[in-house]
Design goal:
- The chain has 406 residues and is of the alpha/beta class.
- The chain has two domains: 196 residues, FAD/NAD(P)-binding domain, CATH 3.50.50.60; 187 residues, no CATH class.
- The protein has nine helices and 16 strands.
- The strands form five sheets. Strands 1, 2, 3, 11, 12, 13 and 14 form a seven-stranded mixed beta sheet that branches.
- The longest helix is centred in the middle third of the chain and has 15 residues.
- The radius of gyration is 22 Å and the shape is globular.
- The N and C termini lie far apart (49 Å).
């Protein structure tokens, strides 16, 4: 039976980007916050120092910063008639494990959604007519819009020190940025990253063809920066050990480089690591959370009562926890009823490699989010009439670095 602890104001489940930012803001409001993280406490100086962080076998091949599939099994099937089988190796998505979460090993590409994406169904209906949208295409508006979200984008960019070039600041247009982005309230906090040879060639070719190349927005900062929480960051060195790695240089924005150094100093914040939440408790109505049940590293079970519970782990774990806790109606792919677990979507990417006889590239100079791109074929930035599909993709060159194993 779980041992009951004294009540706190807030429990935050998962201490990655979302959990850390929410915990920090709630602490600033004077609330007592307990964060419960399944993995270990991670710190740049100890875990990602220059002597160990460039271990490709450890981090890129064996994916040490990611949740192990044996810890929490995720099964997969392509349709309800198939038998769901466990994933033994992560594919497109890489759930993090430990403070900082997946933000420790992300690439750092930091795009904003474009304004029409927040009201996608309405926008496509207005432009192409309701009959142009196939019945099986599940679309809906977000319930929010660009004007409501823009201040939050700006706040995050200041927190992370995002590098880039704005195209539209308060209605004033500037050359060099993404002309398809919505109107921004501020310029990026730091200048665009210096571009290696490959992205420079791509941008030159794109512009010669009439396309509008721009530097990829990057949370790998380009210059020394101090964020609004007083946390200092250093400029990227283009070491090439970035995606799937932590950053030894305090250059890649993550919760452990931008938020947690300030958060852990607050007396009304407590982090409990190597603890896994098993259930969100609710009152008799089932509509109000009252706390959580979690298991610590010794296998002991605890009940932590709280007035507010924030579920801020990786998407799959959020859904799993809600289902185990009886929260919401599970999604049924046959009847299309229910919302919990519905419409999971992840980024899809395709790549090509080009070879040049007359040009020399240094593949070891790179970073997860350095590069140039075009959005001329992204979203609804081009006319889809008669094409039989909606959407598109951003085309960009982002040399992430050529590690020894490859």
């Amino acid at each position: 039976m779980a041992k009951k602890l004294p009540k706190t104001d807030v429990v935050v489940i998962g201490l990655g980007w979302a959990g850390s930012i929410i915990a920090n803001e709630l602490c600033d409001e004077g609330l007592n916050v307990v964060a419960i993280e399944r993995g270990p406490w991670r710190d740049t100086a100890r875990d990602f120092n220059v002597a160990t962080v460039t271990d490709e076998l450890r981090y890129n091949s064996r994916q040490e910063l990611m949740l192990r599939t044996r810890q929490n099994t995720i099964t997969i099937r392509n349709n309800p008639a198939q038998t769901a089988l466990p994933m033994r190796e992560w594919g497109s998505f890489h759930p993090g494990n430990g403070t900082g979460g997946a933000g420790n090993h992300w690439a750092g590409i930091t795009f904003r959604f474009q304004p029409d994406e927040f009201r996608l169904k309405s926008h496509l209906t207005e432009r192409y007519g309701a009959n142009a949208i196939p019945e099986e295409l599940v679309l809906q508006d977000w319930g929010t819009d660009w004007d409501e979200m823009e201040p939050h984008y700006a706040s995050f960019e200041r927190l992370a020190g995002v590098s880039g070039k704005a195209s539209n600041v308060k209605g004033e247009h500037h050359d060099g940025g993404n002309p398809y982005e919505g109107m921004r309230s501020i310029e990026y906090p730091t200048r665009p990253m210096d571009q290696p040879y490959g992205p420079t060639l791509f941008a030159e070719a794109a512009r010669n063809m009439g396309y509008k190349a721009f530097p990829v927005p990057s949370s790998l900062i380009s210059e020394p920066y101090t964020n609004p929480l007083g946390v200092k960051m250093g400029p990227c060195t283009y070491c090439g050990f970035c995606t799937n790695y932590g950053c030894a240089n305090y250059s890649k924005a993550s919760a452990i480089t931008t938020v947690l150094p300030a958060l852990i100093r607050k007396e009304n914040f407590e982090a409990r690591t190597n603890c896994e939440v098993m259930q969100v408790l609710t009152d008799s109505t089932g509509k109000r959370a009252t706390g959580v049940i979690y298991i610590d590293s010794s296998g002991d079970e605890w009940e932590q009562p709280a007035d507010l519970v924030i579920v801020s782990a990786f998407t799959f774990e959020n859904v799993r926890l809600m289902l185990l806790s009886g929260i919401g109606k599970p999604y049924d792919p046959v009847s299309l009823s229910g919302t919990t677990g519905r419409n999971y979507a992840y980024q899809t990417a395709n790549g090509v490699q080009l070879f040049f006889d007359d040009k020399n590239f240094n593949p070891f100079i790179g970073a997860g989010a350095v590069g140039m791109g075009i959005d001329d074929f992204n979203n609804d930035n081009f006319d889809h009439s008669g094409l039989g599909f909606f959407g598109g993709g951003s085309i960009r060159v982002t040399p992430i670095g050529g590690a020894p194993i490859g």
